[in-house]
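User: I've been trying to design a sequence by hand for this structure and keep getting stuck. Would you show me what you'd pick, starting by listing the structure so we're on the same page?

Assistant: Good idea, let's start from the same input. This is the structure you sent:
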């Protein structure tokens, strides 16, 4: 219904600290919201480098 299945999904790897991974699962660190922000930044950076950048070079 609008989503096409690809024969083989492309995978990316992102190295997170344990606390960053926990923050992304919903665990809240009262004094350090920055953990979740940094983890999301790492994921977005990898997406940009591995998926979006190669497509920009295609003409």
């Amino acid at each position: 219904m609008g989503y096409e299945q690809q024969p083989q999904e492309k995978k990316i790897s992102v190295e997170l600290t344990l606390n960053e991974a926990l923050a992304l699962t919903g665990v809240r660190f009262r004094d350090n919201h920055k953990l979740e922000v940094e983890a999301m930044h790492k994921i977005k950076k990898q997406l940009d480098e591995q998926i979006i950048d190669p497509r920009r070079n295609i003409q």
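That's my pick for every position. To get oriented when you compare it with your attempt: The helical segments are 18-24, 34-56. The radius of gyration is 15 Å.
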